[in-house]
Amino acid sequence: MSPRFVNRLARVGAAAQGVLAGGLRGLEKESLRVHRDGRLAQSPHPVALGSALTHEYITTDYSEALLEFVTPAMPSSVEALELLTDIHRFVCAELDDELLWATSMPCMLAGDDSVPLARYGDSNVGRMKTIYRRGLGYRYGRVMQTISGVHFNYSVPEAFWPVYAELEGNDEASDSLRSETYMGLVRNFHRCGWLTLYLFGASPAVCRSFFRGREITLEAFDSGTVFTPWSTSLRMSDLGYQNRSQERLDIPLNSVECYIEGLLRAMRTPHPDYEAIGVKVDGEYRQLSSNWLQIENEYYSLIRPKRVAFSGERPTQALRRGGVQYVEVRALDVSAFDPVGVNLDQLRFVEALLIYCLLSESPLISPDEQAALERNHRRVAREGRRPGLELERVDGTVPLAVWASEILEGVAAVAELLDVAGDGAYSRSVQLQREALREPDRLPSARILAEMRARNESFFQFAMRMSEVHHEAFLAQPPRPEVQAHLVQAAASSLAAQHAIETEPQLPFEDYLASYYAES
């Protein structure tokens, strides 16, 4: 642990007991709808779930078949996880003869044409969301967009900021101090976020159908499954979202303004390959633009600095208006061993890791360091469990196990502070990860492969079995009555809200789109 981190942690703990406890946590979890035979559902978004355009908790991501469940920011991970569980119970009861797929890597696919595009109605905002997704399909392929994940949104408690400002010699907890501190967190998470891929990666194998029509670059596990022996997260490898198409994007993390300008530059700069696709061809939009990014959210990263946007406000506009308000961790695979894809120990550990990143010294990232960090992420995703694996950092190469132990020491110190008024739950979550570091067979990625071998299962059979087990568990216990009633009302209200949007006068779509980009 660096002296500055130890000093900051001690001063924060001494200044106000429990000042780091609390904060806000939110969850976003994606799940494919599949038939009982494992094929991707082709049916529209179920009406009983409301409008994917306007529902607060239940929407779709890339495909009509890719559901996304969203909790609001809540005072504890326990409450967020309870609500996420109730949403799953509600949805499963409305799925008729369909299941929610239990893993990040998708089910049995029949190529890009088998992935139905998400639809959001006839309003300009709805059309824009669909066209954006059509563009993703042209750029990266629709199959890649069926990969699912879990996102964890986190902000430190409001009571932390005045304490921290005083300790850092600032007169007040200004927006600029908050943004600077959160951007330091983001930089440090880029430095050590590979640890979340190592500890929680749960996608070491994939169905051969994922590669239909493309070269398979993985090894054969069995006739229907390909894998890499030491991988942790194929989802976060160059096979999935950390794809090479975005490698040349220069999105600096050294200040919030640099970050904003990097995103805007990518949205304004033409990309030759995307120009070849065309924007509007034969009267139909293929993509929103032919630039490096159609919108800010196309840029994929382990973590994003964010602010809640006003209606009609773009992410970069929200950041420029008020600075960073919270961070969104996007590095978590869907865990097949947990019904909702994530568990409380994971969330507690990630929270403590984020605070460790926030309080640690965070030098600016040079282009050379950024390239090394990206190599680390790819290396851990593809071969993280390989014995003796080494990673790059500014002081040279270091064994993964050594660096991980150093990070865990700091995270454990944060966990102790979080447990001051609690029951030791944060410290236990860190201890579980220490044990997994010592015994890599405990890692989810290793457990999946071991279970497949023990049961003589393909990846498809393993994922199908877990999907059925979780589905029956959700059906066996309905949501809490008050949540059930709220979700029923939310579905009806969302349908009415979409109807109201579509009955409003609409600009010609070309004018709407021009206005959208003009505000950047």
Q: What does this 3D model show about the protein?
A:
45% of the residues lie in helices and 12% in strands. Strand 2 (58-60) and strand 3 form a beta hairpin. With 520 residues, it is an alpha+beta fold. The chain contains 17 helices and 14 strands. The model has no long low-confidence stretch (mean pLDDT 94). Strands 1, 2, 3, 4, 5, 11 and 12 form a 7-stranded antiparallel β-sheet that branches. A 3-stranded antiparallel β-sheet has the order 6-8-7, with no helix packed on it.
SSE diagram, text form:
Layout: H1 3-15, E1 24-35, E2 58-60, E3 66-70, H2 77-93, E4 98-100, H3 124-140, E5 150-155, H4 160-167, H5 175-192, H6 194-200, E6 205-207, E7 219-222, E8 225-227, H7 256-268, H8 272-277, E9 280-281, E10 284-285, E11 303-306, H9 315-322, E12 326-332, H10 344-359, H11 367-383, E13 390-393, E14 396-399, H12 400-418, H13 425-438, H14 444-455, H15 459-476, H16 481-503, H17 509-518
Antiparallel strand pairs: 1-3, 1-4, 1-5, 2-3, 5-12, 6-8, 7-8, 9-10, 11-12, 13-14
Helix pairs in contact: 1-4, 1-12, 5-10, 6-11, 10-12, 10-13, 12-13
